[in-house]
Structure to design on (213 residues):
């Protein structure tokens, strides 16, 4: 879709608020806006994440339990997003490309829709094949109640914003956080859309070596 300057401006104005909200709602973990180190803070690790039951872009029903035994890299967004979602998914793709194939096989990248009204499994199937996104990316969507459940579990903020001036009718303002969850579905750390791909790759490697220790 067309990237119009209005939505870019809106996002840039909104981004600090989104991340600030993430800090508060996350109850102790935060993303530095520069993409620098992320500091998990004790018990908050236990309260970010949780079960989900959604529909994959293949039409298959999937739950968090299907990914046990592998880590998950999870990003929440929407396919009409003009800028920050594609950037984040490209960071995820470029980061995973820096891992070895065996390392990569231990992490499942997931994109969870915050716009299930437009993000049908068919729309997600098209979107996950976008240039630079992880090769193994799975798009997940579902009924609004199912989306709300996982959104609450991950403490993600999102809000529909009407945009009468744009062809998209509405956009979705949302926090921009890449979650790394471990092979038991527990919180490890987060990255952001301005994390360098090599930082993301190293973060995954650090988790893998801890897991193997
Ligand atoms: Ni987005």
């Amino acid at each position: 879709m067309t990237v119009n300057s209005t939505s870019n401006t809106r996002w840039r104005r909104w981004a600090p608020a989104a991340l600030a909200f993430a800090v508060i709602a996350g109850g102790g973990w935060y993303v530095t806006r520069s993409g620098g180190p992320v500091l998990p803070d004790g018990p908050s690790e236990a309260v970010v994440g949780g079960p989900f039951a959604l529909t994959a872009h293949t039409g298959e029903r999937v739950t968090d339990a299907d990914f046990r035994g592998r880590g998950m890299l999870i990003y929440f967004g929407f396919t009409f997003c003009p800028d920050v979602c594609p950037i984040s998914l490209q960071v995820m793709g470029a980061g995973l490309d820096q891992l070895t194939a065996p390392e990569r096989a231990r992490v499942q990248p997931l994109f969870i829709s915050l716009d299930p009204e437009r993000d049908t499994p068919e729309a997600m199937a098209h979107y996950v094949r976008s240039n630079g996104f992880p090769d193994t990316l799975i798009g997940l969507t579902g009924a609004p109640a199912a989306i709300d459940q996982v959104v609450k579990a991950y403490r993600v903020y999102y809000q529909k914003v009407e945009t009468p001036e744009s062809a998209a009718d509405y956009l979705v303002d949302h926090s921009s956080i890449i979650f790394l969850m471990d092979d038991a579905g527990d919180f490890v750390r987060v990255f952001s859309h301005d994390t360098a791909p090599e930082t993301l790759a190293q973060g995954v490697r650090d988790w893998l070596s801890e897991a193997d220790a």
About this structure: The CA atoms of residues 11 and 173 lie 7 Å apart. The chain has seven helices and nine strands. The chain has a mean pLDDT of 83.
